[in-house]
Amino acid sequence: MAAMMWFIYFTCRKEIVNYETFKKFKHKPAIFAFWHGRSLMLSPIVCLGGMKSYAITSKHKDGRMMAKLQHLFGLRAIYGSSHSGGISVLREGVRALRRGDHSLCISPDGPGGPSLHVQEGALYFAKMTGAPIIPVCFSARHVWIQNRWDRYLLVYPFTKIKCKIGEPMYIDSKVSAEEFESKRQELEDIMVAQLRELDAEFNLYVVEPGLKSRAFKRAKKQGLEPKLTKRYR
Predict the structure, then answer these.
(1) How confident is the model over 38-74, as pLDDT tens digits?
(2) How far is it, in rounded angstroms, from Cα 213 to Cα 221?
(3) In the sheet that 103-106 helps form, which strands lie side by side, from edge to edge?
(4) Domain count, the chain
(5) Is residue 230 part of a domain?
(6) Does the residue 232 lie in any domain?
(7) Residue 119 and residue 2: Cα distance in Å, rounded?
């Protein structure tokens, strides 16, 4: 899989928007947030960018497989999620960020959804460490969108990949509950807008919000899972 990813990466034309932000936090603590279904091609970008980073990954079989794959691109794993081992994940992630030279990669809708919904983990890391949250997304012209809850995006070789890096968002350590929720919603809006803008450029199918892994699998067994039918144009 790693060889396949490198082959795809090097045979594709790439455009990275706001790469300056990426370089600015190359050796500084930062929290890179991306949707669960848009993770695969970010690993080569992180690797070639020389980032020292940890990735939050789930403990189940798929998560451990992905962690081994990411390790080949220089990403270290922190196992857990908001549903399983949340306290230990928070502790390890905070420790990694406070070292001062490592970043953290996290999918705020993973590992089980709802899709396109930002859970609070990334914001807690930012609040406790002062590190900024930097939303990242990519899309491509010729892709395969898998029939999964996260609409996982696989890229074909010899196409165009576009990656967009957002502006840093900071969370004050003394933020109120209302302000915290406002920031969570703001981050979600930014990340959804990133995905919509990139997918619209390539006229892909519209990814739906609110899909959950377990419910999607149950519906799929019965042939009742939602299908991708709507394109941007």
Answers:
(1) 988 888 888 887 778 888 877 766 767 777 888 788 7
(2) 13
(3) 13-17, 160-165, 133-140, 31-33, 103-106, 53-57, 75-79
(4) 1
(5) no
(6) no
(7) 29
